[in-house]
From TrEMBL:
GO terms for cellular component: chromosome; cytoplasm; extracellular region; nucleus. It is found in: Chromosome; Cytoplasm; Secreted. This is High mobility group protein B1. The gene is Hmgb1. It comes from the Eukaryota. Keywords: Chromosome, Cytoplasm, Disulfide bond, DNA recombination, DNA-binding, Immunity, Inflammatory response, Innate immunity, Nucleus, Oxidation, Repeat, Secreted. GO terms for molecular function: DNA binding. It comes from Liparis tanakae. The lineage of its organism: Eukaryota, Metazoa, Chordata, Craniata, Vertebrata.
Amino acid sequence: MMRKDVNKPKGKTSAYAFFVQTCREEHRKKHPEQSVNFAEFSKKCSERWKGLTALDKKCFEDMAKTDKVRYNNDMRDYVPPKGFGKRGRKKKDPNAPKRPPSAFFVFCSEYRPSVKQQTPGLSIGDCAKKMGEMWSKLTQSDKEEEDEEGEDEDEDDDE
């Protein structure tokens, strides 16, 4: 489970989110004791948002712009603690041995030249589809033979 950094600045708020906040405040003032059905409320808000003119939306867009500036300033000063930063992919070891090709890959490398020869104008994607169709028509025993051939090739590489 991911832990959340409590010191990280609050994210940017969109113009629509500011609009929904004001709608919610208006609803609370009109109906203080009534609880809000989120599904209905959000549908009504989206309909109202779509009906607004660009001039009406401008104040919410300005609020969003100022909040974006606040967020960017906060993020400039923010340094994530160890273990909370961006997590990229692990660097692949260039010296690590490659996995052996799958039975389908061995099949493709064997039959691709003949498919290309039979239909020279075939695109890469169409060629792959054709190979997939040919593979699916093979019996299980034929597929196992291709898999064994792949293992034989892998053993040849080790020598």
